[in-house]
Amino acid sequence: MDAIPDQPQHDRKHVLLVDDDRVFGEALGKILRRAGFDVSLATDFRVALEVLESKRPVDLLLADIVMPSSVNGVALSRMARMRRNDLKVVYLTGHDIPGIEEQALGPILRKPVDEAVLLREVQRVLAAA
Predict the structure, then answer these.
(1) DSSP H stretches of helix in 1-129
(2) Helix (H/G/I), strand (E/B), else coil: 29
(3) I need a surface site. Which of 16, 38, 52, 126 has the fewest CB within 10 A?
(4) What is the 3-state secondary structure (H, E, C) of 92-121?
């Protein structure tokens, strides 16, 4: 239930990664860091909201859709946008969830996600106006 922030680099984009599976989250964080992103890992929606309420810049929310709390990734992204209306969002899920595409505020990637697909989608969403 904690965030693992890097020291921010001013010329790098910051990704807030939210996944209740710490091992998976840390693995994704390493991939993103190697690609030049700053990453904060939150394993709980409450911690993610704390990061969003801080003064730290966050360019993209990368959120697991299915989490063990009452707040799933889609609900979290809506709460996040209330705090930062320009926040870009990419989702991750290992589940088939009928109708989720209509609720999502961004693209949905399937777990386990291929490293190249993850990086391409994150860069594409960040580059979009």
Answers:
(1) 22-34, 45-53, 73-83, 100-103, 115-127
(2) helix
(3) 126
(4) EECCCCCCHHHHCCCCEEECCCCHHHHHHH
Beta-bridge partners for 4:
41
List the chain pLDDT tens, one digit each, 129 residues. Answer: 445 444 445 579 999 999 999 999 999 999 999 999 999 999 999 999 999 999 899 999 999 999 888 899 999 999 999 999 999 999 999 887 777 788 788 999 999 999 999 999 999 999 997
In CATH, the number for domain 3-127 is 3.40.50.2300
Question: Domain spans of the chain?
Answer: 3-127
Total-model pTM: 0.89
